[in-house]
Amino acid sequence: MSAADLLERSLAAVWHPCTQMRHHQPGAATPLPLVPIVRGQGVWLEDASGRRLLDGISSWWVNLFGHCHPRIGAAIKDQLDTLEHVMLAGCTHPPVVELSERLAALTGHHLGHAFYASDGASATEVALKMSAHTWRNRGRAQKCRFVSLAGGYHGETVGALAVTDVPLFRDAYAPLVLAGTAVMSPDARQAQAGENAADVALRAAEALEAHLAAHHEETAALIVEPLVQGAAGMAMYDPAYLRHARALCDRYAVHLIADEIAMGCGRTGTFFASEQAGVWPDFLCLSKGISAGYLPLSLVLTTDAVFNAFLDDDVARGFLHSHSYTGNPLACRAALATLDLFRDEDVLTANISRARRLREAFDKRFAEHPQLRHHRAQGMVLAFDVADAPADFSRRFFAAALEAGVLLRPIGPTVYFMPPYVIDDVEIDHLMDGAAMALARALA
Length: 444
What we know:
By secondary structure, the protein is of the alpha/beta class. It folds into 2 domains: 3-68 and 347-443, Aspartate Aminotransferase, domain 1 (Alpha-Beta Complex); 73-344, Type I PLP-dependent aspartate aminotransferase-like (Major domain) (Aspartate Aminotransferase, domain 2). It is 37% helix and 16% strand. The chain contains 13 helices and 16 strands. The chain has helices at 3-13, 58-61, 70-80, 94-106, 120-137, 167-170, 197-215, 240-251, 304-308, 329-344, 347-366, 393-403, 425-443; strands spanning 37-41, 44-47, 52-55, 113-117, 145-149, 181-183, 219-224, 228-229, 235-236, 255-259, 283-286, 298-302, 372-378, 381-386, 406-407, 414-417. Strand 2 (44-47) and strand 3 form a beta hairpin. The mean pLDDT is 97.
């Protein structure tokens, strides 16, 4: 299929996600190119015309080890010859058992029960429902409201929108949403004169305490994205906030939900971002990188206390939530192969030097640019904000980056980098050089 044919047929038949389709149409004021990808290898994607693009955002933050990794592919192929799927209601199978046990061990068995779904928003909904139902089973049904952080993003299904504070995603569906409450974010970019990131975290914790003191009787849970709020523009914050949040949730009998869908699986420098605060949540949501971008998979890890709240002879007191592909064996094998790579290649240690090299290349190209603000990094995530960026900056940058041979997709005026963990020094230079060229063109 030619590139032109692929694009024409896609525009006619495919409704692309998180996209104003008018921007893909001929004649758009600032066109958003539709990229016809036909294959991938490592950090590289290839389009139908043979152009190679370095995947600087891990294809929406999922391909931790790049594209077509031989070990992950081999694990899935092996599983195909054994068991492709069986329902998890009333059945079980070796991959889901092993994956659940290994993830529990990675939490030090603080979170020993895994409930599976298919995508990140579904994991959010599982955690919200599970929290409220736990309180109901304990005789406190009034605890059914939720608190999230300003700018927080936890998915776009109707339930998840209750804790997603991004007006662009939420406002059109406001009549359908049981809205929660957003409290001050600990985003370090809010630092006032003389403040550091820890000071901002403390101010945000004080705002959370004020809310919980007044509303804990009806509050089921606080949900946070630990260390980095992705859709808020890679808002990074001090881990002290998580410690304060854990203590406040304990004091006021409120669950803590850690949404590690984007920032888990080593992205922030530790396997779980929560580890850097030395605390564990009551619920931990994973998706995206857990299957390294190969198959849809999400899960919620939770505690013995939550699990035991549902044990009863009464079916109505059970957690009656399900997905047809819950715990799919192929997806679980992909996740197990992902965990094998972390273990066998000591990925977290290797990423320390890889993140340092990324930061050096990042600073070399962007540290002195007069229009850039808030240069920041957390593990394998780097970002800066463009001051006085035009309204169509993200589309202009995306198009210019493609011309420079890199795939990058800014969030509004925020340019960020989240490359696969297999990127090498030469590829890092290509990524940063391409981004610098794209920035110059987008601002020209």
